[in-house]
Amino acid sequence: MGMYNFFSSFVLFFVIHLLFLVVIEVKGKGLGIGECDLFKGTWVKDEELYPLYQPDTCPFIEREFRCQGNGRPDLMYTHYRWQPLACNLLRFNGVDFLEKMRGKSIMFVGDSLSRNQWQSLTCMLHSSLPNSTYTVDRVTDVSIFTFTEYNVKIMLNRNVYLVDVVREDIGRVLKLDSIEGSKLWRGIDMLIFNTWHWWSRRGPTQPWDYIQEGSEVMKDMDRMEAFEKALKTWGAWVDANIDPEKVKVFFQGISPSHYNGSLWNEPSAKSCVREITPVAGSTYPGGLPPPVTVLKSVLRTIKKPVTLLDITTLSLLRKDGHPSIYGLGGPTGMDCSHWCLPGVPDTWNEILYNLI
Ligand SMILES: *[C@@H]1O[C@H](CO)[C@@H](O)[C@H](O)[C@H]1NC(C)=O
Ligand SMILES: *[C@@H]1O[C@H](CO)[C@@H](O)[C@H](O)[C@H]1NC(C)=O
Questions:
Q1: Which residues does UniProt call coiled coil (predicted)?
Q2: What does pTM read for this prediction?
Q3: Is 170 a residue whose pLDDT tops 80?
Q4: Whether residue 21 has pLDDT greater than 90
């Protein structure tokens, strides 16, 4: 009897101990930095540490993104820091970034939103090391920014669909299952892709006349479906060509526009002009743009590791971050798609820094 009691209390003790360990493990998963969702958070004012650089310490910001230089009078939009809900972001350190990437190459591939993020990263690095020498070259569709002392190349390959547009006898053909442009991506150590904004283009700025899938050539098709097919072609390229030991692959995520105030509870707004504050809190009233769902479902089918920079929600909250009339201006006028620099893409890069 005594022996039995001793044995059962021993078992009970053991079981309770085990449960305790399980509870600790589960709690750790909820709260640990490794498990923190960097893309869920709020924008907080931080006038001391932000912006990460001043426009005049980055002489190469293109006019399109140089809002302050183009006369934007309010500057509060440069003083916000992204605060994840469950942890803190490591502050960007340009010297550490370049040390980590010494001898390596990074390539942004995509449309002008990739150019926006590329310029932001080169500004962040250059202003961390203003005396470090750099060169800028352009070879056909690739711009190459080199930090010569570190032999780090930050490149931009303009490629708005990722799949090919080919000039043929009938006209320009957007080929959903051809990805010859990928030749330029070989041998790069870190690739950051993006495509979406050009899929909805129609009229004179649509850069193709026909769309082709397999042997079928069409005048047009559902654009979201075309976007999905192209992403699958790109995903198959990743699976067939990426060695995860050598190459890190990111997808920039869908960068949102702000042309419809109904989506941020200001129905009279038809653009982002005169927006000077972010949306408060961590959810956007208008919800996510539809391509986000398509992108995430395709990313789940890719076997090789691809990290999504899931910047949509944090950028949706920044209706104040676009150039509006302080971009290229002129007849193309209102820009509520790109982002002022310094500004929101600096946060995309700060998160990228936290992920590498
Ligand atoms: C860069 O060089 C200038 C002029 O030589 C010097 O005044 C400045 O302190 C240097 N800046 C940094 C960050 O080393
Ligand atoms: C703006 O968004 C609202 C709410 O989703 C929608 O009903 C409306 O059609 C949109 N307006 C435009 C011009 O797209």
A1: none
A2: 0.89
A3: yes
A4: no
